[in-house]
Amino acid sequence: xxxxxxxxxxxxxxxxxxxxxxxxxxxxxxxxIQVALEVLPFSPEQAVRALDLGxxxxxxxxxxxxxxPHAEVxxxxxxxxxxxxxxxxxxxxxxxxxxxxxxxxxxxRLLADNEPFDVAFSSYALHHLGRDDKTVLLRQTRNRLVxxxxxxxxxxxxxxxxxxxxxxxxxRVSGIVQRAAGDARFTDAKATRGFLDRLEAADGxxxxxxxxxxxxxxxxxLRGVTVFWLEYREAVCGGMK
Length: 241
Fold this sequence. Notes:
Strand content: 15-25%
Number of helices: 10
CATH superfamily: Vaccinia Virus protein VP39
Largest sheet: 7 strands, mixed
Shape: globular
Structural class: alpha/beta
């Protein structure tokens, strides 16, 4: 399933439209990254070492580097096209980024032995993993953190109740139609629902419920696990080593 997700983000048309589509489909993305950055207890003067799991177009890493001007980021992604786009977006900031091309489930292969990080973060990437794979990745990530290091994840969820999930999806579709005025893909609720269903099938989306997500964080050995922000099907969750 993850291989399917990686392949989806090698598609030129998908890469080209990714950020514009995120603004339409995930308008809370900026708020979520803002919350995640506010949670981190570092000062701008610190030389923070960070690990970005699924760098995508570099949206989270760019904001992290601007908030912490002495920080460095190790950015992992399985799609070469996305890594190239991230490097272009970051411009001079890319000098403080080490890009690693590969499946983030294989951190032990991608990273040097015992390479430590003060923080690890991810956004809109880990929902491509099933619960078992996610727990394994989180455990690997936790092991890479220094004592007191942080992990933060900004991502999507699925509701416990099918009835609640249906209503949340209705709210979601309505918002997309309103924000995407003039976009032929989102002319009405039916067209939008069909587009989302095809997109999520192609991407291999496998979002967990909130409780499953928190349980995976705890099972990985993180402490102080909590939800820092939540709206409908999007959340910022995390904890410490």
